[in-house]
Design goal:
The protein is mainly alpha-helical and about 190 residues long. Helices cover about 70% and strands about 0% of the residues. The protein contains ten helices and no strands. It has helices at about 1-10, 10-35, 50-70, 75-90, 90-115, 125, 130-135, 140-150, 155, 170-185.
Length: about 190
Amino acid sequence: MDGIATLLRNYPLIASGSAWLSAQILKVIIKSLTTRRLEIERLFGAGGMPSAHSATVSALVIATSRVDGLSSTGFALVVIFAFVVMYDAMGVRRAAGEQAKRINMILSKIKSIKENEDDINMPENLKNIEKKEILDNIEAEEEIAQNLINNIDEELLFPDKELKEYIGHTPLEVLSGALLGIIVAMLIRI
């Protein structure tokens, strides 16, 4: 029991956890207001306004500075850690979300083409020409691409669910998360 009591008195841990929870609750509220429906899954999801990652590490920086001081090794570690986390949220994870969005759009378009293969908007005089005659007139690269589309594994092309698009943050989301973390850490008493 003494371990739990000690853990509950760990100011940096409490400040960071409180900042994370505050950011996640704010995400649900903000997303629900913008979509006009309750989206509880935002409570556990990455991405969105404000950044829970930024809020968590910013609260950790403030709490560590208040406990250990600005010249401590612990403070230096959490500052570098915070920069890495926030940079990653704006850079790599945001780029991955953008790529997922584009891949989902491409897969959706290919699925639509495959489902409407016979209804493709072709001029009347081309509708009666067989596919082979059309392909003979297309450059080699386009023919290879068409063959890939026609022969691609359906499970790969049409997975049960789309890729997650909402995993990174804009600079504004990161900044707002950082400010939230600072405020939460400052409001909690040592």
